[in-house]
Amino acid sequence: MATNETIRTLMKRRSIRAFTDQPVSEGEVEALERAAQHAASSRYFNDWSAIRVTDPEVAGRLAQLGHQDYIAQAPLLYVFLIDERRNAHLAGAQGVDTSSDRFIFNTGYVFLQGQNDAILALHAMETAANSLDLGCVILGSVINDVDALIDLLHLPALVYPVLGLAIGHPGQEPDLKPRMDPPAQIFENRYPELDAEGRTQDERAGRALADFDQVVKRYYMDIRHMDAPRRSFSEIIADQAVNPGAAHEPMLPSIQRQGFHLDR
Question: What is the pTM of this model?
Answer without folding.
Answer: 0.92
